[in-house]
User: Which sequence fits this backbone?
C-alpha cells in the first residue's frame, strides 16, 4: 500500500507539531506532501528538512524567498510558495489524501473549505472555521463527500462514543445528551476580583494541556468550550439544549454520550493531542500514538462540577449565539479573536474580552447565512466594532 499523502496546514503550531510527531512514527503509512507556517520560519525550515515535503507554504513573498534559499542551500527540493491561494492549492491538490486543518482562527477557513470541497479526508482542529461558517461548511462536506473527522479531543471522544450511523439523527440512535467536558482552565478557582488583573502569562498557563496562545486564552475564559459547543452542534447535528458542559478538572474523560437507556459512554486518555490525531489519521484503524497508557491508580479520582456562568460569561454568550444561529456565531468568533489578540497585547484586561463580545453581539440581529461572502461580511463588521471597543476600553484603562 502506498503511503497516504498528507498536507499539514499550521505545521509550526502545537497541533501541527503533534501531527508530525505521529506521522514520523509511521513512515510506511504517511508521507508529508505539504507543510504550512505563518511566522516561525526557522521551525518550518527544520520541519521541511526532516519531512521533505513537495511544498512549503508561507505568508508572503519575502518569507518564501528566504525559506526557498535556505532550503536549497541545505539540498532540499521542497518548493516554497506563499499566500492564501497557495494554502488552498496544497489543501485541494489531487495528490493529497488527507489534510490536517490546524491553522488557528478565521485565517484557516478558506484553505479548510478548499480541502472539504476537494473531497479530502479532513482532520479538523481549526474549530473557528466551522463555527464561523457552520451551515455552509457542513453543506460543502455533504456535497463533496469529504470525510470530516474531529481533532478537538472532546469531539473526537464524542465521535468515538457515538454509533457509526449517528448521522441518521441523535434521537434515532438513542442519544439523550452529549456531555462536553471542560477543564475549567487556570482560573477555575481564582477569586473573581483577581480576574480583573490576570496577565496573558497566567491565562496561557493551562493546568493540563500545552497549546497555542489563542486557544489557551479561550480555555481560560471558557470561550473555547463555547466554540466547542457550537462545533458539536454542527458535527453531530445536535441542538444546543442537547449539549451540557461539565467541568472536569483532570481532563482525562474527554467527553461522554448519554443514551436513553441510562448508559453513558465516555472516552478517557491522558491529555495528549496525539491520541485524537492518531485516531483520526488511522480511522477506522488504530495506530500507536506515542502516548503513555492511562494509569488509573496514579489518577485515583475524577471530579466534576457545573460551570459558573458569572465566572465564565463567554460560555453563556456562545450558547446564546448557538441558539440564534445565522451570523451570530460568526460575529462571536470574530469579536473573540480581536479581543483575545488585544488581551495578549495587553491593550485590554481579561474580563473585558466578554464585554467586547457582548457589545458586538448586541449590535445587530442575527441573519441567515446563505453564502461565504455573507460570512466574511459579518466577520468584518464584528472585527471593526470589536476593534473600536478595544480602542475605547484601552484608553479608559
Ligand atoms: P498555534 O498557535 O500553536 O499554531 C497555529 C498555526 O497556525 C501555526 O502553524 C501558525 O503559523 C498558523 N497561522 C497562524 N496565523 C495564520 C495565518 N493568518 N495564516 C496562516 N497560518 C496561520 O495553535 P494550535 O494550538 O496548534 O491550534 C490550532 C487550531 O487547533 C486552533 O483552531 C485550535 O483551536 C485548535 N485546537 C488546538 C488544540 C491544542 O491542543 N493545541 C486542541 C484542540 C483544538
Ligand atoms: Mg477541545
Assistant:
Amino acid at each position: 500500500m502506498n503511503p497516504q499523502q498528507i498536507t499539514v496546514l499550521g505545521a509550526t503550531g502545537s497541533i501541527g507539531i503533534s501531527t508530525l510527531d505521529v506521522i514520523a512514527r509511521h513512515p510506511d503509512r504517511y508521507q508529508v506532501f505539504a507543510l504550512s507556517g505563518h511566522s516561525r520560519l526557522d521551525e518550518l525550515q527544520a520541519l521541511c528538512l526532516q519531512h521533505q515535503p513537495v511544498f512549503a507554504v508561507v505568508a508572503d513573498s519575502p518569507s518564501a524567498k528566504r525559506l526557498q534559499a535556505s532550503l536549497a542551500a541545505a539540498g532540499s527540493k521542497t518548493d516554497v510558495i506563499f499566500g492564501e491561494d497557495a494554502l488552498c492549492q496544497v489543501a485541494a491538490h489531487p495528490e493529497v489524501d488527507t489534510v490536517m486543518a490546524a491553522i488557528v482562527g478565521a485565517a484557516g477557513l478558506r484553505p479548510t473549505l478548499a480541502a472539504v470541497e476537494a473531497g479530502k479526508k479532513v482532520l479538523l482542529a481549526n474549530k473557528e472555521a466551522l463555527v464561523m461558517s457552520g451551515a455552509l461548511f457542513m453543506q460543502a462536506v455533504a456535497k463533496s463527500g469529504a470525510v470530516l473527522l474531529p481533532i478537538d479531543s472532546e469531539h473526537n471522544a464524542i465521535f468515538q462514543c457515538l454509533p457509526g450511523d449517528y448521522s441518521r439523527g441523535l434521537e434515532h440512535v438513542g442519544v439523550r445528551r452529549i456531555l462536553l467536558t471542560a477543564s475549567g482552565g487556570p482560573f477555575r478557582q481564582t477569586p473573581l476580583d483577581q480576574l480583573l488583573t490576570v496577565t496573558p502569562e497566567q491565562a496561557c498557563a493551562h493546568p493540563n494541556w500545552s497549546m497555542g496562545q489563542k486557544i489557551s486564552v479561550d480555555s481560560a475564559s471558557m470561550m473555547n468550550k463555547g466554540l466547542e459547543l457550537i462545533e458539536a452542534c454542527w458535527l453531530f447535528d445536535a441542538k444546543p439544549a442537547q449539549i451540557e458542559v461539565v467541568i472536569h478538572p483532570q481532563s482525562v474523560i474527554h467527553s461522554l454520550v448519554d443514551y436513553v437507556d441510562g448508559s453513558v459512554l465516555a472516552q478517557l486518555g491522558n491529555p495528549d493531542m496525539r491520541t485524537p490525531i492518531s485516531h483520526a489519521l488511522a480511522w477506522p484503524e488504530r495506530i500507536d500514538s506515542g502516548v503513555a497508557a492511562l494509569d488509573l491508580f496514579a489518577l485515583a479520582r475524577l471530579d466534576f462540577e457545573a460551570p459558573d456562568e458569572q465566572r465564565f460569561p463567554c460560555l453563556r454568550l456562545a450558547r446564546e449565539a448557538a441558539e440564534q444561529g445565522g451570523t451570530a456565531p460568526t460575529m462571536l468568533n470574530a469579536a473573540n479573536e480581536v479581543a483575545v489578540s488585544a488581551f495578549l497585547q495587553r491593550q485590554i484586561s481579561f474580563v473585558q474580552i466578554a464585554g467586547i463580545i457582548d457589545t458586538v453581539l448586541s449590535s445587530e440581529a442575527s441573519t441567515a447565512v446563505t453564502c461565504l461572502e455573507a460570512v466574511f461580511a459579518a466577520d468584518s463588521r464584528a472585527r471593526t466594532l470589536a476593534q473600536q471597543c478595544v480602542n475605547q476600553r484601552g484608553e479608559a484603562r
